[in-house]
Amino acid sequence: MLKQVRTLNKSILVYFFIGASCLTTLPSAAKNINTFIYIPAGSLSDSLREVANAYAVSFSSNPSLINDKTTSTLVGDHTLAQALDFLLRGSELTYKIQDKGFVIFQKKITTNSEILEEITVKGIRYSLASSRNLKHNNKTISEAISAQDITDIPNTNLAEALQYIPGIAITREAGEGRQVSIRGNYPDFSLVTLNGMPVLANNDSPMDSRVQKQRDRSFDFNILPAELFKQIHVIKAYSADKIAGGISGTMALQTINPLDNEGFKFIITPEVGYNDYVGTGAKRYSSLISNTWNNWGVLASVAYTTRESLEQGANTFRWRNIAIDGADLSALTQSQALHLTQGDYIVPRGNRYSVWQATQQRFGANLSVEYKNETTHFDFDMLSGFLKGDRYEYHLYPRGEQSTPIIKGLTTITDIQTNENNELVYARYENARVATESRTQEINTAYQQGVLSLTQQVNKNWKVSAILGKEQSKYDIPYSNKIYTQGISDVTIDYRQTPFYADINYSENLKDPTMWQMHHGDIEQYNSNSEYTFAKLDFKYDINSLIKLQFGADWTLFENKMYNAQQNDIFFNELTNAPQQLTDLPASYVSPQNAHKSLQWLKINTNEALKLYGIDPFNIQNNSSSITTEAEHIQEYSRGAYTLISTEQEKWEAHIGVRYQAESITSHTQAPHSPILYNLWLPTFNGSYFINDHWRLRVGLSKNYSKPLLNSLSFNGSNDTPNNTKYTFNSNLKPYLSYNTDISLEADFSSRSTFNISLFYKDLDDYIVTTQVPLSKTSESTVPNINNLWLSNAESAYQWGAEISLNYLIHNSDWGINLQTTYNKGKVTYYDSNNGSALFKKNLPFLSKITASSMIFYDHPKFNFKLGAIFRDKYLVRAGSLLLDENETGFMPTVYWDANLNYYFSNHWKLKFSAFNLSNEQERQYSNSTLRAYNSTTSGRTYYLGLSYQY
């Protein structure tokens, strides 16, 4: 049945595309639909501000002309001019509508001495109206954030600004948003464009459970400050004129331009922050200066943040059936001892208390030069930034046999308890192994981009547009160094009361340096660099008043290079030919670790301690130990061409297009002479039907693709891969394909209320999984009884869901609510990465069944306030026999609470306050489908207070 649905889905797309193309000669579509507006009787000043909010514009006036005047109730469908005519009737005032808004003045000619005050509408309602207008004016199903001050949305970076959009979910790092998922799919399946060109910028997580040194196609949104951006447009239904490559959607980011505001503008906003885990102050500074001269404008903006972060928690190396050997079990029952020695119990390994600390600096700068007249629009944007800092992590955990507390011949297990899943949830050990790990890292992410765009109206029928861009992102870990110590103590490990956060207790004084012995060290260097070169040319031709033709082409070169070098297991007793005690280090190299809420232990100044033993912690090449290296170089050429024809009629509009895409992908390490080649045809249809002045129905049918993930192009086994497995690069690998059906019903009841409901279905073909290499592709010299595996497009999947959103501003009130929720369902068959066999069908990676947000706000010209909550349901990250210890891993549900307020002293001064993670939410990562404890952390509540000046 499911196969029939997929076939029908593809057939509908093809036949609808052919059939709709026959309708392009029908008459023109309605434009400038009236807006329903309700403004209660009151002061003229407030009413004009309401009009500006409703139409997402600003206005100017002499305050003395409007402050003492009142108006009647305005209700109904009106254009901006009709609304102003009504409000100003019977007065001596009139108006003039301009590009950015309207001006109110006396009907008599004003003199040069008359002072006009520009009322720049900055409130929440204005932001909602701007977003609504951008969404409505787009020809595809989309969502948007568009505000004159995007920082009025509760956020510390771009990822958090997106949380209140339907279908958007984010992952967090050290309390901040990092990666963004559209409609519950892989973040890698979301294409990100910045100023019109595709981009990629990565950093990573310090946590093993969140995958360190991860190379992927997902843009890490915590790299760049939110203050540099004026608009985020999330395009969910694909159209052929857009850049292809994101099967879950496209996030189009736009930086601020000088001609967004006429004249001189200057903004400076200093802020100070506080996190209740760190205790020290964070600092944020942002500033913008711009000016316009006739048709020219220049803008420069900068933003800088410095902060400290701390995550703490409990984590487990995962659970495993372990046959206990070498421990004294005489205190246990005969049955318990037998089960332990036979390996019947599933034992938690490496039960750690952990602290991750970091200092972080984030900087971004944007320079924009813009020219615009009636026929020409020129824009040059340069964006640069960095995210850098130092990271420290400290762990306390058993590190005995198989990462249990057992020391063979010494440890006694005196008590145990298991649960219904045969998992060892409580154990008491005497004379057991205890260990610490101290790690220090330096991280640097640098981002640079330059984009030149030009639009020229050649004549009344022809328009040509061009974009030329270059982007480069570098992520470096110059050093990542660890030192391990070990000692002996009694220990109890208890998961009975809090399954995701073990209660671990030791009998010894863990801050006594005499109990610790230096064991070994590891050092590492890593870098990953990405680079985009992009060019795009578009032509638009108005065939007649009814039909428009658009066609164009684009070219992209993408390169990614990675290098990793490691020196592991440098044993200190081998360097000195004697056991090394922690007391052998200078006292200044050792200090208490007091950041964890449950236990305190000693931490080590890792770099200084390594130098004491003649090890260079900053340059791995200067050391005598053997070096293990890994390198990869991926190069991709993309060429696309499209044509799109549009027709508009009184009640409906249609946009029918097709794109041709050619790709060449070369892994210079895996297959330097065997590039992956493929060609695709991507038809699209997007249409709208205006049911009446309030309701609009949209339909989208499209085909899109996403390239193989970067780790698919450097395919190799995990550390737990059996010895009889061989991995082969597949030069015939193809991209993921998605056949999409989107339906959206949009309602705009008034200037205060909107309601949207969307349904979508995705048929995902050529899904990449691990399978056996066909015999026809194996060499004659293949060793018998070896599993020959590769990645292939052997699987298909599906996804469907519904999105509902409501923005409602209460009549005769400054209060409003914003609600949205998304239901998602999608499944794919997972494969065993060790033998290539199909295992089971489960949810798609990163897919949360339900995501939702709610916000209540108060919006007055002098004061506005927001309180919001973000819910994300449980989601799976990886599944299959990736490791011996688990069949899947993922995250449990979370709810994050945020708030912010702004108080306007005048049109120039504003007080800002923001609060994040008010509930100090616990991020709980599970291991295995039985939901065993893996990693649980909290990062504390964060507050910012700032003062903004705008001229």
UniProtKB/TrEMBL annotation:
Q: What does the UniProt entry say about where the protein is found? A: Cell outer membrane
Instruction: Could you list this entry's UniProt keywords, alphabetically sorted.
Output: Cell outer membrane, Ion transport, Iron, Iron transport, Membrane, Receptor, TonB box, Transmembrane, Transmembrane beta strand, Transmembrane helix, Transport
Task: Spell out the InterPro entries in the cross-references.
Answer: Beta-barrel_TonB, Beta-barrel_TonB_sf, Plug_dom, Plug_dom_sf, Secretin/TonB_short_N, TonB-dep_rcpt-like, TonB_rcpt_bac
Q: What's the short name of a Pfam family annotated to this entry?
A: TonB_dep_Rec_b-barrel
Q: Ranges for the Secretin/TonB short N-terminal domain?
A: 57-107
Q: Which organism is it from?
A: Pseudoalteromonas distincta
Please identify the protein, giving its name as recorded: TonB-dependent receptor
Q: Which family does it belong to?
A: Belongs to the TonB-dependent receptor family.
The membrane topology noted for this protein in its Swiss-Prot or TrEMBL record is: Multi-pass membrane protein
